[in-house]
Batch of 2 targets.
Target 1
Amino acid sequence: MRLAALLLALPVALAAQQPAADSPALAKALAQLKTDNAWTLQKQVALCEVPAPPFKEQARGIAFRNEMVALGYADAHVDEVGNVVAELPGASNGPTVLIAGHLDTVFPEGTNVAVTRDGTRYKGAGIGDDCRGLAVVLATARAVKQSGVRFDGRVLFVANVGEEGPGNLRGTRHLLGTTYKGKVDYFISVDGTGNDITSRAVGSNRYRVHFQGPGGHSYGAFGMPNPIHAMGRAIASISEIKVPRSPKTTFNVGIVSGGTSVNSIAMEGVMDVDMRSESAEELAKVDVLVRKAIDDAVTAELARWPASTKGLKVRIDTIGIRPTGAQSDSARIVRAALAAAHELGLKPGIGASSTDSNYPISLGIPAITIDGGGDGSGAHSHDEWYDDGAAGYLGPQWALKIVAALAGTAR
Ligand SMILES: [Zn+2]
């Protein structure tokens, strides 16, 4: 509903606000992204063949840094947490725009990262998510440099660590919370394939919950509280939690483990819980209900065995917290992305997701995550593929046009 309304309104908005013509240097850079498309693809493959497991993005980071230095970004460097950052100073005091792709993959060390090609289709772990984003950032930085584009504001070209689950956005947190705290006006993440925009942040709270007790023989020690039974009670309660359909709010117990044998009262039951919402308020509400379900489950399990002197303990470890925040689809950054897409003949959908943009959005910094163009599928699986199709170059062109619109072009 929201999307349909917005797309209908778009031609009117554009008619009222004609985009400024591209400067000659910008036009040259845009043309280069098309003519040198093979270069972009080659780098996408090359970067992808450097492994980047969670928390082990160093090798791919160095490869990206070396590419940036070779392009003339002499200051390109790897920061304290592993992000690669290169600055293009602004010609005047325009806004600072940060554009990033993420280095990390979900694949563990030892995964085969060779990329194979079948016609125009490339297959490889991470080839779309997010080697495509890295290639788009790199190609954009190259076209800007070689065409002599000057922006009014500073542009930060970034390859960041820690986007995927376990990374908990640590790369983006470091950039926007420490290095460039208060100094970034617009944040663009290029992530994956296609031509859509993520403008709203789905926040998530993820916990690993340990239920623990002394344990004992299932027959001989019978009559004491059982951690796995307590966990079962908690799961049953969690499964009954009522959440709103809009703003979409969800919960899931995704992994359970524990116990050592069928004839032992377990010493431990462990469950991983994930909760998500587009609304910080609803996320906080479901969080309270999940914690209450856990507390009540322990109370009920202890009450079941009043004669027992044995207790139960619960430990909740945080696996990940992705903040959410409100950002309107009429925000300037979203309108700039839509206008640029329209000029290129693209018709992006707008949606909500959990990406590197969550953190800036939670801070009130305008942020979007855009797809990197082309077509692809199978992210986070070994069947992941990317196909540039006839017009994959539109991805980097779109990214460049958004950067130019936000940073302003001096010439
Ligand atoms: Zn990604």
Note: The longest strand covers residues 203-212.
Target 2
Amino acid sequence: MTLTDTNSPLNADQARRVQQALADLNDAQRQWLSGYLAGLGAQSAGESPTGDSSPAKAATTALTVLYGSQTGNAEGVAELAAERARAKGFEVTLTSMADAGKKTLKAVERLLVVVSTQGDGDPPDPALEFHELMMGRKAPKLTGTRFAVLGLGDASYEHFCQTGKEFDARLAELGGERLRERADCDVDYEERAEAWIDEVLESLAGDLATPPPAEAAETDAAQGAQPSYSKKHPFMAEVLTRQPLNGRGSDKQTLHLELSLEDSGLEYLPGDAVGVVPQNDPAHVDELIAMLKLDAESPLDEGRVLRDALLADFEVTTLTRPFLKQWAEWSQAPELQRLLGEEARDELRDWLHGRQIIDVIEQFPVDGIDAAQFSAALRKLPPRLYSIASSQAAAADEVHLTVAVVRYETHGRARNGVTTSYLADRIEPGDRVPIYIDRNKQFKLPDDDEAPLIMIGPGTGVAPFRAFLQEREERGAGGDNWLFFGDRHFRSDFLYQAEWLKWRQQGLLTRLDVAFSRDQADKVYVQDRMREQAERLYAWLEAGAYVYVCGDAEFMAPDVHQALRDIIREQGGHGEAGADDYLRQLQQEKRYQRDIY
Ligand SMILES: Cc1cc2nc3c(=O)[nH]c(=O)nc-3n(C[C@H](O)[C@H](O)[C@H](O)COP(=O)(O)OP(=O)(O)OC[C@H]3O[C@@H](n4cnc5c(N)ncnc54)[C@H](O)[C@@H]3O)c2cc1C
Ligand SMILES: Cc1cc2nc3c(=O)[nH]c(=O)nc-3n(C[C@H](O)[C@H](O)[C@H](O)COP(=O)(O)O)c2cc1C
């Protein structure tokens, strides 16, 4: 943009001379100058000088993007926000809540927070400590901070985007000024999150004196280039093998899948997951269409017809509160309206359990809803994640998964999990399935090959530990490895039994403790085995062991956490608070990592 007397407060001569001077400068010099002028501005406005001559400190375009993420979604959104903000000319600091403390928010003028919700309305593990700090009395004052919060969550959970809501409310309570209303994103968060980023940056555009140098914008755009395969552009991986992992007589169906990554260029590390982009069950989709009295071939946007869209684009099973609200409005059913009222909160939770979209449509029929209206009430079909059960060092261009097939019966209907039944019933070896790699920085082997590992993974939770051991074997890592595994029955549910026993014999697996819950009158779980081994387990911790927990988030992970806490308390002679500090310290040192679902 050429500087003139009409687009600046300068007179024509000043504008010409400034323009001439700027023309002589390269980008770095211009950037320095902008910081220098900003610093001068701050001083003349009576603010204290920074005492640091670096233009970075003096610049008034600083923006902090803070994220709390368990499986990387919020992290990815935060990275995108940082990238777009940089391209606009902001000087961005991107920080994980895991590395954040009181000082992180000191004198922060512009703050974007992206955070997911885990557990039962809890913050993600890496954000736990920062969340506690922010909610407590020692939280920093935030007068002068302008902020915006984006929550990631899943509308089928009762406490939808709870952590985002808590941060949003607390930042305002601490004196911060909202740049924009909080946005709560469901599992199909991408478009909404992108729109939020653009809107927030737009509302900050006035803070930027000059547009960014074109070169910087280009570089950032290039850095943000998408990996070759992603959720939106999955790789069609051939299914090489699909084997049952349970023996005869088991009441479970767990599958070992081997997929080919040949010619994909995809890379993964132990601890990462594969995202599978599923298709809904055609029989279920047809039943829905018939119940709604719709034409399967009704055209929708982008040349799709209803049946194809319901098969591939939309979630047609999981019942969420937003869908229910929409259906209550359409049906005007008093029962639904009552259930959605504030007084029926607990009742609604119980009512939703085991119910799906089809049950609502059947129980509260609505006439006249057309294909476009119905599909607009649905959320996008989200891919499902599966922990990778192989090391690329050992499996080369394959990736292995351990999949527990979801089948149950509720409210008189047999139900099948969308993705697991797709993998179990609707594809065959030789078919191709759409996948992508979902990195997980929060669940990684230590760099130190001598560090001992304690791995707790009942059921499919054992998957990443197969990858860990394959990797350690390939690396010739000398560190001790201890696995706690559990399932229902020794005879039928000892997943990958032969491999553990082989590694145990070879010495790679130093200890193997198993808990088969239904082989005796009293149920025994991995946490019971941990308690039995309390002294040894604590000695391993003291010797620098890394603890990994993978699998069920609802019961197993809290019980294992409690067992660890008790072991540390009793064996280490710590009080309750001391044991919590010990665990927190482990978490900070990345020696306590969880991948729970
Ligand atoms: C990081 C991560 C890693 C994962 N790793 C693995 C893995 O290695 N292996 C694996 O098998 N899974 C893994 N999962 C779980 C996986 O992503 C899917 O959630 C799971 O396979 C179910 O998917 P689905 O599409 O088959 O079922 P969906 O169609 O999504 O149905 C599952 C839902 O059905 C409901 N439901 C299930 N059982 C019952 C019941 N008895 N009564 C009432 N309602 C019920 C619950 O609401 C449940 O959420 C992982 C998840 C995450 C987040
Ligand atoms: C075990 C588990 C528990 C979850 N609990 C909640 C919840 O209570 N409320 C919610 O809104 N979302 C919940 N979610 C959904 C996540 O917030 C959502 O998948 C989000 O995109 C994850 O982002 P992240 O990868 O940055 O952690 C849960 C997800 C998992 C796997």
Note: The chain has a mean pLDDT of 92.
